[in-house]
Amino acid sequence: MLPKVVIHNSISLDGSLTDFIPDMELHYKIAGSYKPNAHLIGSNTIKTGIELYGDGVPPEEETDFKKPVRDENLPFWVIPDTKGKLKGLLHTCRRFEFCRDVIMLVSQTTPKQYLEHLEERNYTYYVVGADYVDLHKSLALLSSQYRVEKVLTDTGQILGNLLLEQGFVSELSLLVHPVVVGKRSYNIFGNINEKIDLKLCKKKFFSGGFIWLVYEIRKKC
Questions:
Q1: All domains of the chain, ordered by start, with CATH?
Q2: Which ranges of 121-175 would DSSP assign to H, the alpha helix?
């Protein structure tokens, strides 16, 4: 049985994922309320987040080569990265106190040097696809190997749209911000090719003009 997958994103009123400043405290407060066993995060999202919200990439230390020992109730961070985009950056994720540890998803075409990089630093990785990560195999693996029952992803357009189009998503959580991005909008659903039927199951208003909308995924139209 595959885990329940929830997409949670902060967006502008016109559906953009970028070019506005999201309320990260509120975003992660809502994300935490789901109590997921795993966060599925795209490599591009990780890299962009480090560039936008970090203070530079600190040098690796000896402790970064060891798996952290943390509360078993914390979620794993599961990151597809077939091209090795996060080489030299993953320790910033592993250091995050609310991350149990990092699990990497790679493919048969992932550079050998990147796999050696992961092995040297004791990152668990799985080859789950030929050229790209097979999402069905990945979710099944998380269920069987780690007893993951709920996956939350607050990733960008690419991974989120793939999960939606392939039918893995049960719930869509959107924190709508009171801003219109306009022409520079990077639409959250920009790569969706088919209509997807939704049912509104929750709405909540927050001070400052924020609206939290939760939709159940019914079926593809």
A1: 1-37+157-221 (3.40.430.10), 43-148 (3.40.50)
A2: 135-146, 157-165
State yes or no: pLDDT of 110 exceeds 80.
yes
Cβ(175)–Cβ(9) below 8 Å: yes
Q: For the segment 42-101, what is each residue's pLDDT rounded down to a tens digit?
A: 998 898 888 766 677 889 999 999 999 999 999 999 999 999 999 999 999 999 999 999
- Whole-angstrom distance between the N-terminal and C-terminal Cα of the chain? 24
> Do residues 197 and 218 touch, judged by C-beta distance below 8 A?
yes
> Residue type at 19?
D
What are 104's strand-pairing partners?
Answer: 79, 125
Rounded CA-CA distance 114/117 in Å is 5
